[in-house]
Amino acid sequence: MDKLVIDGGVRLKGDVRVSGSKNSVLPILAATLLTDEPCVVRNVPGLRDTNTMVKILRSLGKNAELNKGVVSVVSSKNNSLPRWVADYKLVSTMRASFCVLGPLLGRFGEARVSLPGGCVIGIRPVDLHLKGIKALGAAISMDSGYVYAKAKQLKGSHVYLGGVYGSSVLATGNVMMAAVLAKGKTVIESAACEPEVEDLADFLIKMGAKIRGHGTPVIEVEGVKRLRGAEHSVIPDRIEAGTFMIAALVTRGDITIKNMVPRHMGALVDKLEEAGASLVKSADSMRVCYKKQLKPVNVSTLPYPGFPTDMQAQLMSLMSITPGISIITEKIYPDRFMHVAELNRMGALIQREGPHAIVSGVKKLSGAPVMASDLRASACLVLAGLAASGKTSISRIYHLERGYENIERKLEGLGAKIWREKE
Ligand code: UD1
Fold first, then answer.
1. Which of 173, 271, 369, 383 could form an S-S bond across to 27 if both were Cys, CB 3.0 to 4.6 Å?
2. Do 151 and 250 fall into the same domain?
3. Do 339 and 209 share a structural domain?
4. CA 192 to ligand 1 center in whole angstroms
């Protein structure tokens, strides 16, 4: 296993290009199961998770390949595997694979998909996915850790998808993908409004689906008989872009982030400006320059357009070196605080109280050996390592490889002293 070593304290400067969105591309690749015709997906990030989804497509009878940012998917002619069974080995490595349920059910009238299980950031149930699929008329049973869903013909329906923690991104995607081939009209209320849901809907529309209201809490889907192949370019990754915005500020640097969509970043921009950061936005790039000492901010994570839970850990690394008290409240995954203990090992002063982290900003962090626990916690530790004095070594960086394409190369291009070592 590799670890990442960072010799911190360098001001990062220069331009960096954001890759395609991980959270967009995963359901979009799943949507290719809705047709037998060829599909081409572009701006695909080379990540562990995208490779996992490509493997899942292969296990479901597709010929799929990721080559230089492009995934081409065609149906293979002779496949002995049942085309509607998604195996535990693959689904357990990545929760997003559960979103093959909707397309498989819509296309084949049945689907057997492994339950994904929990993960380090919380329990992560799938009740909303199942509620939506059931509302479309599918019979659902569970056995041996799998969900089996069956429906001769799905029927359009009205379904409210709000859960205890608000809307669900993948449940909205899953139900939308099941509804596109259902008979009649489906209305999804309390749908997730995330740009990734919009991107998925845009791809489905290119395939011939009839969808309205995507990007709002009410999505309407008029079922069609069949979908065709389509080409699509995935939107830029807003979480990667946000991570580089914070990288500029924690290192007191000056970074221009290219191939991003500033209008997807409203809540983060608002918080950083409130903290006193200088941000210069254009249509597809942003310059983030550290000009003066920042002030602490309080923030609560919320579904889009609220502050993204996927940026909570990274913001915490910035607030941990911003003098004063910041309160960070996690409302999507109340246990998503694995990074707190690791930041404290680097000299941060953070106290967790239930879903709140009370951050007392310190002058400086000091490099230390730390352990990555999940994807965004790893990004937080990289940021902390960049800001700290001395060497930080981060073990278990395979988490980082799930969501950040070429992160070391990109940071190196900005002047960071960062390299890999064998554990
Ligand atoms: C997606 C993102 C993930 C992000 C999360 C929240 C992908 C591949 N992943 O995950 O990076 O952190 O959105 O923005 O897009 N919930 C239920 N029942 C369900 C489903 C979810 O109660 O059936 C709860 C979850 O436990 C959580 C909240 O709803 O508290 C939001 O989760 P959800 O939006 O579903 O997360 P994912 O779509 O899995």
1. 173
2. no
3. no
4. 10
